[in-house]
TrEMBL record, chains A, B:
Taxonomic lineage: Eukaryota, Viridiplantae, Streptophyta, Embryophyta, Tracheophyta
List of residues binding Ca(2+) 1: 24, 26, 28, 68, 254, 258, 299
Sites where the protein binds Ca(2+) 3: 298
Keyword terms, alphabetized: Annexin, Calcium, Calcium/phospholipid-binding, Metal-binding, Repeat
Protein name: Annexin
Domain of life: Eukaryota
GO biological processes: response to cold; response to heat; response to salt stress; response to water deprivation
GO cellular component: cytoplasm; plasma membrane
Domain comment (free text): A pair of annexin repeats may form one binding site for calcium and phospholipid.
Family: Belongs to the annexin family.
Length: 314, 314
């Protein structure tokens, strides 16, 4: 469930544009007004505001915002206000151009978005960067990571409920055999994770657990710090239990020395309209304080204000 | 240019449906009527006829057709009448389920269709087979072929005109180095062919020719019978000069002992609404008789009649 709170009566895009314009004018910027508008509109409403603002004032909303606000707050407002597909395209671009094996953003976007959403990201990427997403990912990565990431990002997974149990059985066995030989980059593991539907994969992982006694992620060395193994485990988590995966990202960001603001904000911004409620619940179960309180402790100022607003708290 | 001839005044889908129904009824089937209607309607018109026929007569048009006609003629009418994306999905399915290295249908569909068309094929495949195209292709192929085919079929190539000349230069060199080492399955060759835009690839191949003195396909052993090399050459041909590629398919089908009806019909049916005119021209230049005459000589009966109709001749 989403945490985004949209008022029962939403002002027209023209009214919102006027109020934003007013917030930018005069001495100082009215950050509270910016948050009270943008952080309480859904993706369609935000898109209309951008269009209307541009029509009325002849300037891109982001350009106007960029003159008034800065730093983490600016980045959060910018990312949040973008269409989800455009935002993901931008996150992919940032992840690709400074890609390192430890970067999980590509896996996260490839495996937690729906098939149609992921395809929309690829279209948005082309519109923005005049290249295909996969040509950039393929050019910036190598070897096993390339094989895995290009497939995960280009696949258009079937989303029907059908499950083939004998296939689940045979593919659980294929995965187990490969893992037993520590052949983690086996082309069959990559094929199965990269192409099967989520329903089919869940059946395969359950079958794995039943037949071989451990969860697949336990056998993928759940304590190992090997980055490729960690990537495989992240794929399984994102496919099977996205809320659990995101809870972990948020927890590690908050537990880290200082706050890894970029991961924390990314999860809040990309999931506020999707399943941030479930992520909050998973966080509350696993940690000693609610997520809102943790975010409140770790951040400050307008940046804190927008993240809390997206979490459904003012 | 297309060879399909659609009359200036097209009857309504209801009129066409009635005439088709009439052609099916009574003693014997009126094959001429079937051809005179279906082989002279474009994809949108054929789709409307299927819908209207189903509404009016409570039976799928293909089911009615299947009771009346058979063999090569039935298959040709069936393939032709399908939506292009549905038809390609079916051709992919047939190619995948009995896949052999010498089968070029997957390469042909992956590399001669536009990016949006190829995506529509993947959607049609899911609707029809309740699985993704790539999971079937990946499951039925292995090793280098799998790497190549899955990437070619899942890529969503950028179709803008932009060309990066320094990239063309560096990637021509990468390809040349790999070919010089006879490392034809080099992951960089697969990456470049599989992800770059057609405009970019044409620049890269031109650069290759200029800098290294041979066309890339000459260096890919243009006389070699190695199937993987032949596949790479087919990819280059499909990307750079589809009419030339299709001319060759048709020529080999006609030259073969007997006629490889399936390739001949496939090219005529899939290209009649696209570029069959150019394929005919390429054929006339290269062979001693026009394509229409060759088809006429090699086929017979209603099957011949529909192929000639699609070629724009009765």
């Amino acid at each position: 469930m989403a945490t985004l709170r949209v008022p029962q009566t939403v002002p027209s895009p023209a009214e919102d544009s006027d109020l934003l314009r007013k917030a930018f004018l005069g001495l100082g910027t009215d950050e509270k007004a910016i948050i009270s508008i943008l952080a309480h509109r859904n993706a369609t409403q935000r898109r209309r505001i951008r269009e209307t603002y541009h029509e009325k004032y002849g300037e891109d909303l982001f350009k106007s915002l960029g003159k008034e606000i800065s730093g983490d707050f600016e980045r959060a407002v910018f990312l949040w206000t973008l269409d989800p597909a455009e935002r993901d395209a931008l996150l992919v671009y940032d992840a690709v151009t400074k890609w390192q094996p430890g970067n999980r953003v590509l896996v996260e976007i490839a495996c937690t978005r729906g098939a149609g959403e992921l395809f929309a990201v690829r279209q948005a990427y082309q519109a923005r960067y005049k290249r295909s997403l996969e040509e950039d990912v393929a050019a910036h990565t190598k070897g096993d990571y390339r094989k895995l990431l290009v497939l995960l990002l280009t696949t258009y997974r079937y989303e029907g409920p059908e499950v083939n149990m004998s296939l689940a059985k045979s593919e659980a066995k294929i995965i187990h055999t490969a893992i037993s030989k520590k052949s983690y980059n086996d082309e069959e593991i990559i094929r199965i994770l990269g192409t099967r539907s989520k329903a089919q994969l869940i059946a395969t992982f359950n079958q794995y657990n039943n037949e071989f006694g451990n969860s697949i992620n336990k056998d993928l060395g759940h304590n190992s710090e090997d980055e490729f193994l960690a990537t495989l485990r992240a794929i399984v988590e994102c496919l099977v239990c996205p809320a659990g995966y995101f809870e972990k990202v948020v927890r590690l960001a908050i537990e880290g020395l200082g706050t890894d603001g970029s991961s924390l904000a990314r999860v809040i911004i990309t999931r506020a309209e999707v399943d941030l409620k479930e992520i909050e619940e998973a966080y509350a179960k696993r940690n000693s304080m609610p997520l809102v309180q943790a975010v409140s402790k770790e951040t400050s100022g307008d940046y804190k204000a927008i993240l809390l607003a997206l979490l459904g708290h003012e």
